[in-house]
């Protein structure tokens, strides 16, 4: 059991002990009750309820350490004993009076039983205190206890997530250690003092009437001894309070971390980090008085409107937004706006060359919620309450839908606490979702800007949709290229003056300094153009170009970026143009920047097409990894003229030099405008394809990834997920290869076979035993049904062998891969699903809190609801025909129509739990669902499965299904 969770159990045991001591020593005088019961009866009634509550708080003995199991068992026996004793007192003759619970218990039990109880309480107290001490104190052999290690892990996670927590866990731990020391001996002392309290019951039985003086003396003696017990109990109660405090604080910290981990996603800050910092003193005009900059400053200090930053491609909008986010002047202005209220600043940078989450509503909302809750844990209780309204929020899809995330955001926005929010959202034009446009994004932004305590600063290209929404008030807009002339002047001048030859040349000819002004005059506010031009002019300074030659270099660069990119491509040496085309083609096919090590193997494959297949499984030597990285940097420069560059993935550094150089670098475009140019220019695309001839570039990429898999350094088990990312990339390009050329099936198979063999060889390092169906599952996801069929023929029982008697999947089943779409492909393959079902895949296999079948229906319902309520879904379009066919297949193979589904997406439905049959009827119609079931039942006695041909998959032939399909869209 987790040691910190064990403290929570121990604190409950301490509460039982404290209740027992208090019961025996502090409940002395009984008074009449206003409720009509005697004071004694009502008092005992309260005690009975209190001990019942304590007993209920004691956890079951499941998942508890052996020592705690024993202590819990003794604690429960004591609560049972106290309950029986108090029930006996409650039922006694009310005419009988007693001056303390202790004396009453002695009358009811006898002196020996009370003494036995005090002994048990004392022993339990000593043992549980010892347990806490052993768990908490430093040990000579370990250096750090498990408690300290657990706290360090929580603090490490807090640091990774940058959570600003109020509680100091280390201080709480120190308080606990101090309380242990003060209470270690209290148990035996309290036992002795309780057993030596005046025995009023025994004296009354002697038949001798006590004088008033004797009674007063006995009372004084009792009070003195009781006060000594109370003093001892105070230190014991400090232990209970300290134990409970650290347990509750840790529980809260872990709950917060779980929510933040669910909101956070890989590369959440990748785009922001990729943007270079603004050049020294650039953009300072924002906070000066003599330009339009003060309007932005006024907005920062006083307004809650939306401020719009717009400009040409390459004008530096993202750099400007990054500058604003990180500027101390911005923080000072915003603090003046916030006044005495807490200020929370969050940012999100859309990136259409990144992952789905980096360019979607879901990514925007998750990122903002993560930043808000990271900075302001005070909002967590309200968010947890709202999350409880989302069924199965720990499931994989709970935070997948924009409405769920907006529910959490609206909960935060409507809290009556003194907080102001400012959000910086860059690159609205880079937003990209299936079936959704920028007008849908604007609707979400307006929902974000829903309070006078919230304001947004957004940036985009000057597209009409944004101008109509944000451009009506010129005071709260900035056209960036109109304001950056001085910044460009400073940048060019600084770069020239940093060059060691510039001063030498200007001393020879002062006209060199005039080149700076010429660059500024031609720039038209486009920073990217300036950056690229200055790069080649500095090259000219190195070679001591004459002034006229520098001007010639300058004028050869077209002022238009697209012409400029074309110019750079045309300037690449003919000998490199085939490899240039290969690099550009891979970079434009990929949905995210690909691994640099993969690119480094492209030349090996060009020299030998079987290189990857014949390569031995062996980790690359660190020196060879560095050599490959250096070679690739040089080749990118020669073959792309800087349009592609080697960048370090700063979001996840390796733990050693080898893993950093192998996994830690990617190849990315110099700027998103380069990617746009290559995508949108038909002439360039045609030219690149001509240079590649008949080569299947995605297949070439698969070979390169296989080479990387075979040579990956995994000796320290430090980065298995990077290896798994390579496998995902492999299947991404495999899908692209099949789409580009369906006849590539036979040439692709050996690559995947070799990749799986590599995966198996690295099983120990990767924990591959927990992912035995990764390859067949991913093959099913990309609709590579021939490969799925081949694997099942080779191992016919592979699916059944994974299923135990309880039908609980020990690993993720292949059928679950097949039914959940991913980045590789949008339509789910009915053919691959059929193969898996016929091979024994069970749709009712339990996984992730439900079954494969209920998870599929939940996802299907989410896709349908997303379209119904106007929100995009980034996995797959809702195709009713295909959905019906998949449901039919699953039902034919035993899917449970009575299975209960906890819906991840919450709509206006009052019912959050629904059975499968009802949900199918809601997604389609009850009549259509009824026809579907009738068709299934009429065939269930004649067949156990359905094998579809490719033609069958496109258009089912059965008469019942044709009738069924006609009614789907009614």
UniProtKB/TrEMBL annotation:
Native organism taxonomy: Eukaryota, Fungi, Dikarya, Ascomycota, Pezizomycotina
Domain of life where this protein originates: Eukaryota
Protein known as: NACHT domain-containing protein
Domain called Nephrocystin 3-like N-terminal: residue spans: 282-461
Record region (Disordered): 188-218
Basic and acidic residues biased stretches: 209-218
Chain ranges of the DUF7791 domain: 571-711
Signal peptide: none
Record keywords: Repeat
